[in-house]
Design a protein that fits this description.
The protein contains 16 helices and 14 strands. With 434 residues, it is of the alpha/beta class. A six-stranded parallel sheet has the order 3-2-1-4-5-6, with helices on both faces. The termini are far apart. The structure holds uridine-5'-diphosphate-glucuronic acid. The site of uridine-5'-diphosphate-glucuronic acid (UGA) has 20 residues, from helix 8.
């Protein structure tokens, strides 16, 4: 099929590349001229493992990049994958979606399918339909097809989905989506779930809010474990092995971050308020997450007794491993809190995210960036681990003890077994374990 993509951000680029990989002819448009030029040369502006390799044989063959909406004139379906940032009140700002729809109404061929891939609040499909009607386009179909990709494993998530959610109000629209995803449904035996537009819109938010709640739940249980001397890793196994709970997304950490959970939690709380409902559980998950983001600084203060004039190393700035993304990363909160509490220097290392991180602290001379996870440990009073990068997981613990000169480690991702740290005599503090 001929498919268009509006927006070559993370979602648009992954979606477009994967659809081309499945054999469709894909044209992706972005207003950013320099980005489009880069993409034509297969210079990928985001860090996503496997994406460049996937694009390599496709670009110029059946994956094209352009700045012109006119290039969408013969597409059968078009995915809108532009940003929906949080407005100040927590609502999702849809200006980019609506501008795209207006531009599309001028160029799309008859009976094309407009697919909302961006995460959009309940009721957006209806508003998009109204915009199209006001432009005289009664023929175009509007579909919601939320994405469930995780940064760092986006290609696998796209090509091996658990389910594909499609919201529409016309059988022809479902038929088009079935054709687009036929290779995945057939080979992967995954479900294509058909529902109304509003149900699909809510499914996306409910999925992210549920997962965020699960993380906040285990983070609070971890804090409780510390008080009552239980081990959260055991509790996690104990509850996660019940299939009704499920073992995934039960890892305690320094609070969830990224461009999705924090924004979507806020947006769902806002949408529910608009219709007169308080989402108490989701509200509580958000509050617990705020506390989780400051917990590392609080814990370190207890360990060192006083943070004034201390030098602290940080391993991991990205909001999770396998990404250079630092949006809403706990590292930003931890660093701000440590600076407020008087540390004299922060020596930070991340394999991919240092540059993005420093854009949040452009004039902060107390932060020193390092190219090596070991060099940043010189002369520090403590190390905090915030991101679960593989190089931290597999670090030589004897070397770590030596480099730290017996100073303590605060591991907010529980990367090491208690036996292994005991064996080398590392001064080790983790989350929800003794
Ligand atoms: C999330 C969802 O997992 C995807 O399904 C969804 O498509 C995406 O948002 C989106 O809406 O676009 P992502 O933001 O890439 O994906 O990252 P996750 O892997 O979900 O992690 C989010 C945060 O939760 C990270 O800070 C991570 O460290 C934290 N987390 C995750 C935990 O603290 N514990 C866990 O067990 C899992």
């Amino acid at each position: 099929m001929k498919i268009g993509i509006v927006g070559t951000g993370y979602v648009g680029l992954v979606t477009g590349s994967c659809l081309a990989h499945l054999g469709h002819t894909v044209t992706a448009v972005d207003i950013d001229v320099s980005k489009v030029e880069m993409l034509k040369k297969i210079q990928v502006p985001i860090f996503e493992p496997g994406l460049e390799e996937l694009m390599q044989p496709l670009v110029g063959k059946n994956l094209f990049f352009s700045t012109q909406y006119a290039d969408f004139s013969d597409v059968d379906a078009i995915f809108i994958a532009v940003g929906t940032p949080s407005a100040d009140d927590g609502s999702a700002d849809l200006k980019y979606v609506y501008t795209a729809v207006e531009s599309l109404s001028l160029v799309l061929k008859k009976n094309a399918c407009v697919i909302l891939k961006s995460t959009v609040p309940v009721g957006t499909a209806g508003k998009v339909r109204n915009i199209l009607l006001s432009q005289g386009r009664t023929d175009l179909m509007v579909v919601n097809n939320p994405e469930f990709l995780k940064e760092g494993s986006a290609i696998k998530d796209f090509l091996e989905p658990d389910r594909i959610v499609v919201g529409a109000d016309k059988e022809e629209a479902f038929d088009i989506l079935e054709k687009i995803y036929a290779p995945l449904v057939k080979t992967r035996n995954c479900y294509l779930l058909k529902m109304s537009n509003v149900s699909a819109e809510l499914t996306k938010y409910a999925a992210n809010c549920f997962l965020a709640t699960k993380i906040s739940f285990i983070n609070e249980i971890a804090q409780l474990c510390e008080i009552i001397q239980a081990d959260v890793e055991d509790v996690k196994k104990g509850i996660g092995s019940d299939p009704r709970v499920g073992a995934l997304f039960l890892n305690p950490g320094p609070g969830y971050g990224g461009s999705c959970f924090p924004k979507d939690v806020k947006a769902l709380i806002y949408s529910a308020k608009q219709v007169g409902m308080d989402l108490n559980v989701v509200n509580a998950a958000e509050e617990a997450n705020k506390r989780a983001k400051y917990y590392a600084a609080k814990k370190l203060e207890k360990i060192l007794e006083n943070l004034k004039n201390k030098v602290v190393a940080i391993w991991g700035l990205a909001f999770k491993a396998l990404t250079d993304d630092v949006r809403e990363s706990s590292a930003i909160y931890v660093v701000n809190e440590l600076l407020t509490k008087g540390v004299s220097q922060l020596q930070v290392f991340d394999p991919e995210a240092t540059k993005n991180f420093m854009s949040y602290f452009p004039r902060e001379n107390k932060i020193k960036c390092f190219d090596s996870q070991w060099d940043c440990l010189k002369n520090v009073d403590a190390l905090i681990i915030l991101t679960e990068w593989n190089e931290f997981k597999t670090a030589d613990l004897t070397k770590l003890k030596t480099m730290l000169n017996d100073k303590p480690v605060l591991d907010m991702r529980n990367l090491y077994s208690l036996q292994s740290v005991e064996k080398v005599g590392l001064r080790y503090h983790s989350l929800g374990r003794k």
